[in-house]
Every structure is written in structure tokens, then in C-alpha cells.
Task: inverse folding
């Protein structure tokens, strides 16, 4: 309802009601966005090697803690503080000073505004999401202290300035007219570029090249053959394990992807900064793009590999969510379907190209988030329409000029280039000071291995855990003596949930689902 056309005697009540509705929806969106951050940790944890899963989950929590403190102290004022210029916000909101000043949302198609503290909290959740994405490319190669320092510096020097450029009314890209509804450039393009740079600088995980042998991918016949069967050329296929780099728990990854899907409605629909029709369009477009991308990714897998995978379905949905993020409030439903389909095809092939290029991007942050974010931002120049009320600009499909596409291209180039350059400096400095060449040898199995080793050292020999220890060292014939070979799961019918990864058969993690013969990350 437009507050300007109602009875003047009711004008104040209508404005207050609209303010309350906007605030209520944005608080719900904050919770959904936080849910997506936690779901992203589960998604990455399911895709990780079994020895790195606890490390990945811990890193996700550390990103939340460090990112929250950084945003409250300096991040918000760099991005949206008063008194800044086109490239940098002022320090007027340092440590959240002057929060009592009312702030109206930069744009609300239906009128009204949103309280300052709620806008600040919502922007905090988007910053946490970007930080969690950056660390998705560094699994198994960065110790926790170095990660915390990297997240703090990256949010302050990269994310907050880019958010100022794109979303602040004083930002130079905002004034230029570049469109980014919910974070295609600020979140996905910047985080994706940073993830690729980190993966290149930090190098490969041990055994990573095993996944990309035989011309860049496993031979199709070997992938479908049972464990121990001969591969083409007479080389036996090794069983899945840590050195294979395959997802250790596909159901966990699927649960995480589902949580991300649900939480993403808060990211996109919440970016309307109101509870009106614009939020409804963003919500609908998000669902359409994710569904279209998931189906198209499965089709690409079937045409390319002759089979589909559950991880492929989850990756397709994530790719669709990424691509629709910058366009969710600017495009019509058919445009959302087209964006999702194109993103699935582009990101599916980018995942293969990343591996062929020798880049160990652990969770395809570059292939999915960088490619999807850039593609979605550029496609706004084609599919944007004024019918949704998010913008007055029209894309090329609807008779608009090339100017919008040019502005979108400038936003992508400047964001990706700036993020990559600053992240390169940070990565080189951190690798030299906090992540030396002996890091992987000191902690080869991540936090899980250290935790289990500590527990085994602390427990007395006659404790229930100590009595249970011989059971874990049963041979495959059921007798005691020969330990199970490293990297194999004990598949006895009554205890198939242990994953044994240490050289001595020690338990490095617990897995409730048998490892699949082959899945595609």
C-alpha cells in the first residue's frame, strides 16, 4: 500500500505499520541468511575428505565469530558509514555509534523504511556468507589462526569496500547505475575470485592429482567398475579414501545444500528491504532459477558422463542460487529460468576446467560462485525489466540499451580484479608468516586427527574405549591381528559406520553412511 494515497488522518498509522512489517520480514530474512551460512558449512563438510571434515566445520564457525566482531567494529562503517566518498565509507559509525539515527532503506518500491539496526544485522549476515565462501577453497591447507586473520583482513579490505561501491548511495558503482540486487558482485564474484587466488597460492592437497589423472578425469569404465577391479591398462582401481579426495558423506552434503536453498530466500527476498511485492518477485525468481539449474546440471552430467550424481543435483541448485542472486529483484520469471539454465551449463563445465588447470579449489568456489556470480550479474543487462518494480532499467531482451550491460561489465571487472589483487597480497603474506611449507606434514589429517589423538592419549588403558579398541583392528576375515589397511572402511555388517584412515588403522572420523563407489564433487 502506498502511504501517500490514504486518508491523511491514517497516514501515520499506515507508515508505522509498514515500518513494522518491513522490520519483521527483514529479521526473518536475517535468520534465514544465517541458516544458509551454517548450511554452507554442512555442504562443504560433506564434500570434504574424511580427515578434513571437522576442520571445515570449525572454520565455518570461526568465520561467523571473526566476521561478526569485525563487522560490528569497522566493517559496517567502511561499507555504509556516513561521511565517506565513492570508494570508502566514513568512520562515523565506528563501533556502531549513532545507531539511534533513523535510516531509510536505499530503495523500497512500496514506500516506508527499515530501522537502522535491522539493516545493519542483515548486512552482517551477507558478510558472514561471503567469508564462509572464501574459506571453501582452502580445505586442508590453512591452519586456524591463519584462517582467522585472513577472514578479518579480507572482510575489512575487500568485502566492505566492494559493498560500499555497489550498495551505498555514495558508492561509485551505485551512482553509475550498476545493478546488484542481493550480492552477485559483492558476495559471489569477490569471494570466488579470492577463493581461486588462495587455492593457487596455497598449492595442492596431498594426493589431489590422483583424482585428475587419465587426461584430467577418471576413465569412465574405471569409475563404474567395483573396487579392486582392473582399470583400462591393467592398473587396479583403488578404493575411495582420503587420497582420492571424493566426498566422504554425500547425504550430509545434500542436507547442507537443502539448508542453503531454504536460507537463500532470506538473502534474495530480504534484499528487497521490505515485505511488499518486490520481495515476492525475488522469492519466486530464486526458486525458479535453482530448480532450472538443478535439472540442467543433471542433463549436462547425463550427456557428458552417461550418468547423474546426487552431488551434481546439489551443485546445480547452488549454481542457480548463485546466478539469480544479483538479478532476483530485476527479472521476470522467464528470465529467472533462463539465468538458472545458463548458469548450470557454465558452472558444470567450469568445474571440469578448474581441475584440468591444476587448481585445487576444494569445493569449486571459483567454478560455481565466481562463474555463477559473474554470469548472473552480466545477464541482468539482458533480462532486467521494470515490471518487477526493482529498477527502472530495461535489459536488451526488453528493448533496453547497451549501457546497462556495459555498467554490469564494469562492475564485474572492477570487483573481480580488486578482490583478486588484494587477496593475492594477503595470501602471500599469510603463507610466508603463518602457513609455512611444513604445515601439511605437521597436521596431515586436520583437526579430526588431532582430536582423536588427544582423546586416545588421555583415556586410560582399561577404559571402555580402550577395551573397544581391539574391535577396530579386526582383519577383514574377522580375526584379530592384521589391521585394516589405511583408507579402507570396515564393512562388517554390524559396524559399517567406522571410517579407518590412519596408517595404524586408527579412527580419524565417524561416518554414518558407507562411502559411495564414486561421486562427483
Result:
Amino acid at each position: 500500500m502506498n502511504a501517500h494515497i490514504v486518508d491523511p488522518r491514517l497516514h501515520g498509522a499506515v507508515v508505522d505499520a509498514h515500518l513494522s512489517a518491513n522490520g519483521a520480514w527483514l529479521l526473518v530474512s536475517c535468520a534465514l541468511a544465517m541458516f544458509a551460512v551454517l548450511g554452507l558449512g554442512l555442504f562443504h563438510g560433506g564434500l570434504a575428505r574424511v580427515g578434513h571434515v571437522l576442520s571445515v566445520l570449525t572454520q565455518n564457525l570461526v568465520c561467523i565469530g571473526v566476521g561478526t566482531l569485525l563487522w560490528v567494529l569497522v566493517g559496517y562503517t567502511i561499507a555504509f558509514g556516513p561521511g565517506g566518498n565513492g570508494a570508502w565509507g566514513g568512520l562515523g559509525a565506528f563501533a556502531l555509534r549513532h545507531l539511534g539515527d533513523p535510516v531509510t532503506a536505499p530503495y523500497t518500491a512500496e514506500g516506508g523504511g527499515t530501522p537502522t539496526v535491522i539493516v545493519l544485522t542483515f548486512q552482517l549476515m551477507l558478510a558472514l556468507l561471503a567469508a564462509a565462501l572464501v574459506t571453501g577453497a582452502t580445505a586442508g591447507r590453512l591452519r586456524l589462526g591463519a584462517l582467522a586473520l585472513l577472514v578479518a583482513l579480507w572482510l575489512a579490505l575487500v568485502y566492505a569496500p566492494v559493498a560500499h561501491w555497489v550498495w551505498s548511495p555514495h558508492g561509485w558503482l551505485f551512482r553509475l547505475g550498476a545493478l546488484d540486487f542481493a550480492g552477485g558482485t559483492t558476495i559471489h564474484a569477490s569471494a570466488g575470485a579470492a577463493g581461486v587466488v588462495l587455492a593457487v597460492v596455497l598449492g595442492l592437497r596431498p594426493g589431489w592429482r590422483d583424482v585428475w589423472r587419465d587426461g584430467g578425469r577418471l576413465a569412465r569404465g574405471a569409475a563404474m567398475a567395483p573396487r579392486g577391479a582392473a582399470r583400462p591398462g591393467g592398473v587396479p582401481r583403488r578404493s575411495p579414501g582420503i587420497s582420492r579426495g571424493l566426498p566422504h558423506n554425500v547425504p550430509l552434503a545434500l542436507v547442507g545444500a537443502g539448508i542453503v536453498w531454504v536460507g537463500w530466500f532470506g538473502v534474495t527476498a530480504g534484499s528487497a528491504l521490505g515485505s511488499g511485492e518486490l520481495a515476492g518477485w525475488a522469492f519466486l525468481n530464486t526458486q525458479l532459477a535453482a530448480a532450472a539449474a538443478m535439472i540442467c546440471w543433471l542433463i549436462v552430467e547425463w550427456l557428458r558422463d552417461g550418468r547423474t550424481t546426487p552431488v551434481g543435483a546439489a551443485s546445480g541448485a547452488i549454481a542457480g542460487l548463485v546466478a539469480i542472486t544479483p538479478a532476483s529483484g530485476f527479472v521476470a520469471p522467464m528470465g529467472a529460468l533462463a539465468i538458472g539454465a545458463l548458469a548450470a551449463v557454465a558452472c558444470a563445465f567450469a568445474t571440469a576446467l578448474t581441475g584440468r588447470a591444476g587448481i585445487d579449489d576444494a569445493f569449486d568456489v571459483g567454478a560455481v560462485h565466481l562463474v555463477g556470480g559473474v554470469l548472473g550479474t552480466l545477464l541482468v543487462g539482458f533480462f532486467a525489466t521494470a515490471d518487477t518494480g526493482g529498477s527502472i532499467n530495461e535489459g536488451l531482451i526488453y528493448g533496453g540499451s547497451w549501457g546497462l550491460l556495459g555498467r554490469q561489465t564494469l562492475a564485474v571487472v572492477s570487483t573481480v580484479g580488486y578482490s583478486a589483487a588484494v587477496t593475492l597480497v594477503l595470501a602471500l603474506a599469510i603463507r610466508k608468516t603463518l602457513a609455512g611449507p611444513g604445515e601439511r606434514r605437521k597436521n596431515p589429517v586436520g583437526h579430526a586427527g588431532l582430536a582423536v589423538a588427544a582423546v586416545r592419549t588421555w583415556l586410560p588403558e582399561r577404559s571402555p574405549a580402550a577395551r573397544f579398541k581391539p574391535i577396530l583392528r579386526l582383519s577383514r576375515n574377522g580375526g584379530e591381528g592384521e589391521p585394516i589397511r589405511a583408507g579402507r572402511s570396515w564393512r562388517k555388517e554390524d559396524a559399517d559406520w567406522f571410517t579407518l584412515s590412519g596408517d595404524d588403522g586408527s579412527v580419524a572420523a565417524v561416518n554414518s553412511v558407507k562411502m559411495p563407489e564414486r561421486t562427483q564433487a
Observations:
- The beta strands are 498-500, 507-510.
